[in-house]
C-alpha cells in the first residue's frame, strides 16, 4: 500500500517534466519583463517626499487626466464586450460569403500601428472628415472630445474580447441548447440560462484586457483627443508632457498612481471572474 502511494506521488510530481528548469525560466522572464521595470518605477519615485507626491497626485490637471483615461477606457471596454460577443457569435454560429476575410479583419488593430489608427480616425471624424462632416449638422462632435477617445479605444480593444470569447463559443456543447428548445424554452431564455453562464467568465476576461489596454493607450488617442488639459488630456499624455519638461519625479508619481489604480481595478475584475467561474461550476 505504501509502495503504491509513493508511486502515485512520484507520478504526480513528474506530471510536468523539468518543472524546476521551466519554473526557473518563468521566474527569470517575469523578473526581467515585469518586476524589474516596476521596481525601477518605484525606485525613481523615492526622490519624492510624501508631501510632493501628494501635491502631484491631487493636482487638478492630474485628477482630470485620470478621470478621462479611466472613464473612456471603461466605456470603450463595456461597449466592446457587447460588440465582441455579437461578432464572436456571428463568426462561430453562421456561415456567409467572405467569413474568413471578416475574421481576419478582427485582428487588424493588432497589426496596425496605433499612430496610423489615430490619424485615420481623426481624418474620418473631424469636422471636415467623411463621417464628421455628416455628424456636424446634427450637433454631434466626435473628434477632440471624450467620445472620440472612446471610439479610438473601442477600435484597439475589440480584438481582445472577440478572441477571448470565440474559442469558448466554438467548444460550447449545443446539445444543452437543443434539449432546452425541445422542452419549450424560447431562444432568449436558452441564451440567458444555458449559453450566457458559460460565456460570462471569458467575457469578463476580454473586458479586463480591453480595459487595461485602454488605460495605457497613447498612439491612437493622442491625435483624436485634441490634448486639451482638464477636458480631453489623458494620463499617458500627461506623463509624456512631464518627461519632455524633464520633470521625471512628477512623471513617475503620475505613472505610479495610475499603476495602483489600474491594479486595484483589475484585481476587482479578476475576483469577479473567479466568482463567475465558481458559480458556473
UniProtKB/TrEMBL annotation:
Sorted alphabetically, which Pfam families does this protein's record hold?
Answer: BPD_transp_1
SUPFAM superfamilies named in the record: MetI-like
Enumerate the transmembrane spans: 21-43, 73-92, 104-126, 138-162, 203-228, 248-272
> Topologically, how does it sit relative to the membrane?
Multi-pass membrane protein
Superkingdom of this protein's organism: Bacteria
Domain named ABC transmembrane type-1: residues: 66-269
Keywords noted in UniProt: Membrane, Sulfate transport, Transmembrane, Transmembrane helix, Transport
Q: According to its UniProt record, where is this protein located?
A: Membrane
Please give the Gene3D superfamilies that the UniProt record associates with this protein.
MetI-like
The role this protein plays is: Part of the ABC transporter complex CysAWTP (TC 3.A.1.6.1) involved in sulfate/thiosulfate import. Probably responsible for the translocation of the substrate across the membrane. Part of the ABC transporter complex (TC 3.A.1.6.1) involved in sulfate/thiosulfate import.
Q: How does it associate, per the subunit comment?
A: The complex is composed of two ATP-binding proteins (CysA), two transmembrane proteins (CysT and CysW) and a solute-binding protein (CysP).
The family annotation for this protein states:
Belongs to the binding-protein-dependent transport system permease family. CysTW subfamily.
Query: What's the name of the protein?
Result: Sulfate transport system permease protein CysT
Task: Supply the source organism for this entry.
Answer: Paenibacillus tritici
This chain is encoded by the gene named: cysT
Amino acid at each position: 500500500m505504501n509502495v503504491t502511494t509513493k508511486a502515485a506521488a512520484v507520478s504526480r510530481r513528474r506530471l510536468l517534466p523539468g518543472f524546476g528548469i521551466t519554473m526557473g525560466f518563468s521566474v527569470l522572464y517575469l523578473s526581467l519583463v515585469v518586476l524589474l521595470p516596476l521596481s525601477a518605477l518605484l525606485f525613481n519615485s523615492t526622490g519624492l517626499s510624501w508631501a510632493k507626491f501628494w501635491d502631484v497626485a491631487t493636482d487638478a490637471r492630474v485628477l482630470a487626466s485620470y478621470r478621462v483615461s479611466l472613464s473612456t477606457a471603461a466605456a470603450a471596454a463595456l461597449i466592446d464586450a457587447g460588440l465582441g460577443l455579437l461578432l464572436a457569435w456571428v463568426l462561430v454560429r453562421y456561415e456567409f460569403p467572405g467569413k474568413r476575410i471578416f475574421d481576419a479583419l478582427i485582428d487588424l488593430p493588432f497589426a496596425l500601428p496605433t499612430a496610423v489608427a489615430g490619424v485615420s480616425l481623426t481624418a474620418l471624424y473631424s469636422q471636415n472628415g467623411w463621417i464628421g462632416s455628416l455628424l456636424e449638422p446634427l450637433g454631434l462632435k466626435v473628434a477632440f472630445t471624450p467620445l472620440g477617445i472612446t471610439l479610438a479605444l473601442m477600435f484597439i480593444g475589440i480584438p481582445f474580447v472577440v478572441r477571448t470569447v470565440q474559442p469558448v463559443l466554438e467548444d460550447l456543447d449545443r446539445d444543452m441548447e437543443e434539449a432546452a428548445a425541445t422542452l419549450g424554452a424560447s431562444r432568449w431564455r436558452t441564451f440567458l440560462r444555458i449559453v450566457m453562464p458559460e460565456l460570462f467568465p471569458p467575457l469578463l476576461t476580454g473586458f479586463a484586457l480591453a480595459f487595461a489596454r485602454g488605460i495605457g493607450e497613447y498612439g491612437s488617442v493622442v491625435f483624436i483627443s485634441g490634448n486639451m488639459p482638464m477636458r480631453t488630456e489623458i494620463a499617458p499624455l500627461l506623463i509624456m508632457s512631464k518627461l519632455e519638461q524633464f520633470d521625471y519625479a512628477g512623471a513617475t508619481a503620475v505613472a505610479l498612481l495610475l499603476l495602483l489604480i489600474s491594479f486595484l481595478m483589475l484585481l476587482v475584475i479578476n475576483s469577479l471572474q473567479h466568482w463567475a467561474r465558481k458559480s458556473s461550476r
